[in-house]
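Appendix B. Worked example

We walk through a single record from start to finish. Start with the input: the chain for RagB/SusD family nutrient uptake outer membrane protein, Pararcticibacter amylolyticus, length 469.
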Amino acid sequence: MTKIFSYKNRILAAGTFIILSTTLSCKKLIEIPPNPPTSITRQAAFADSATAMSAVAGVYSFTPSTNGNGIPYHNGLFDVTTALAGNEVAYMGTYGDDAQYYSHTLTPQNDRLNELWSVPYAGIYQVNDILANITGNNKLSASFVKQITGEMEFVRAFIYFYQVNLFGGVPLVTSTDYTTNTRLPRATATEIYDQIFKDLDGAAKKLPATYPSAGHVRPNLYTVIALRAKVNLYRGNWQAAYNEADSVITRGGFSLLTDLNSVFLEESAEAIWQVPVLDAYQGSGDAMIFVSQGGIPNYLVTDSLLNKFDDKDLRKAAWLGFNVVDNDTLYYPFKYKDVVPTTPATNFMLLRYAEMYLIRAEAAAQLGGLAEAVDDINIIRRRAGLTPVYPATQTAVLDAIRQERRLEMCFEFGNRFFDLNRTSTDNKYPSSGQAPAVLPGWKPDFAIFPVPQTQRTLNSRLTQNPGYN
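Next comes the structure step. The output line below is what the pipeline stores for this chain.
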């Protein structure tokens, strides 16, 4: 069977994608295009399931848009800024705006911020546009509408989950009404989470347990449950997080790979959700940013992270690259190795099976199930070539989970930065491993980034986060 979203089908996916979204500017939250889509364009784009699927493919392709930005999160910007903020890498280059993330001197004028804020809304706009045009569309079958509605609800929940963790409350956009959307105030973080749960609950009722096409590009039921497990973990809903992670582990059909170099490749058995890197000339944004071709890496793995790796840890060998400079071994992130397109292809990992064990372990430990939590920790450690550990107290178990999350999920989607921030007031976690102790210059207000000044200039209803005025 031909893969719906293979590289060979980029042109099909791009057709409607260009119609729908390339006229969107990322200069502001939702900007009215110079030539807004007409009703004729909309009717043509959603005239049947084939043309509608082209629009859906555009959501998943995450190809670079015409202004050079990647539809989230293909271009690596999210990973590099949060890796800097989480003290996973130190910036050794000369671009001052990158250095601000590492030193926690971030200002609302930072050039990177506007892209982090606005580019995801281009993805949300695509989702909302598809939902608006398939709802009540009598040219599409009820089963097709149900499937695509579930997929789009999931994607929107995913994007908002990362926006609320990066910025706190953000504008809640659920329509394509330009006039309204350009003047929206920030919703509260609670309101954003309410929408996330609403979308995930809706998606769970609509999506089947099997993937609807080859690969793991389009979400299924267990993709939804995996994200819901993570959201509940972040919200401290321990029993729900445990149940959902357990469901993915026991019934999702995924498996841990013994070859760590294959984890991020296309159709990895560990991938719960991954999207193709669609560029004919270069690989993933993470590889283009992190991988060093010699000399001192621009993004140098910090000693605080490097020293946590045991020399026998297979993750160190597989996921850290290095250069030798003046007899010093200097490490850089190397999970994504594709500075040029690879065969088999490298896909961008959005949700990964290994994290489900760590979510289940943390939830179990919080609920008092220490032995079960330790079992899950050791599943991850054994895969990494390490001997088991047997911490005996809740504090020690949570510390061990924090350690494994740090090593297993390094440089991925802000996990380290968010883990430190979400536990900074929980006294069950060792204070020596909390944000104030391990992030130089960190203050409680720095748990989230500032609202870009560019956005506040465009929309006076946007308030600033505390500590950044």
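Two observations about the output. The longest strand covers residues 271-276. Strands lie at 89-91, 271-276, 299-301, 320-325, 328-333, 347-352.
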